Amino acid sequence: MTTVTTRTIEYAADGLTMIGHLALPAGVDRRPAVLVGPEGVGLSDVERRRADALAELGYVALAFDLHGGRYLGDPEEMLARCMPLLADPDRMRGIGHAALDVLRAEPRTDPDRIAAVGYGTGGAIALELGRDGVDLRAIATVNGLTTGRPGETARIHCPVWAGVGSEDPIMPPAQRDAFTAEMQAAGVDWRLVVYGGALHAFHHPPVDHSVLPGVGHHPQHAQRAWRDVVDLLAECLPTAE
């Protein structure tokens, strides 16, 4: 097992002081990098551990913040913050670009080899970076099958992988269909994996606070989705290039 170095990074975005988690692999050379976006509740140890796991694989990884260092465990508070954000592509892009700037500024990062992986709101932000024409090697979104403004999806020039639970009421079949139709019409290299029997945020371990209806952990599919993300990175952003 390689030695991973981590540190907290403060930066400005969306009028807030964000607190991200940077994980660096062993060595001193430049490495491919991954931006990791959290669910709507905000950055937690779940995403920090994922960034650490990516660093173990040889990537520089930054798990970015959504709420100025806060974790919004109350569903009503989370919705009050996230729904206006999800309705505003420019705000989402601003949050994504601010985190991307931090990742690119890290001396260990190869700025020409970056991917974005996001969950829920973080996945929507990853997609908006692609729609904004950011040069990414891959985009992965879990539970975040959002659609964008007409015509802008054609600016995505990397493979897009999406994962969703078959029983997710927040990303129902009609939303999946709209997402895949948009990707197909734009000529994007896209994939959608539907995990049978899984709810929204199926990848996220159980929490000790109330959650929205339709949210639930599925341990087996959580492991499968993580393997699918790692496989996407191995294909599109190999650590030995």
From TrEMBL:
InterPro entries: AB_hydrolase_fold, Dienelactn_hydro, FrsA_esterase. Gene3D superfamilies: alpha/beta hydrolase. Keywords: Hydrolase. GO terms for molecular function: hydrolase activity. Pfam families: DLH. Residues 20-235 form the Dienelactone hydrolase domain. PANTHER family: DIENELACTONE HYDROLASE DOMAIN-CONTAINING PROTEIN (PTHR22946:SF0), DIENELACTONE HYDROLASE DOMAIN-CONTAINING PROTEIN-RELATED (PTHR22946). Belongs to the AB hydrolase superfamily. This is Dienelactone hydrolase family protein. It comes from Streptomyces coeruleofuscus.
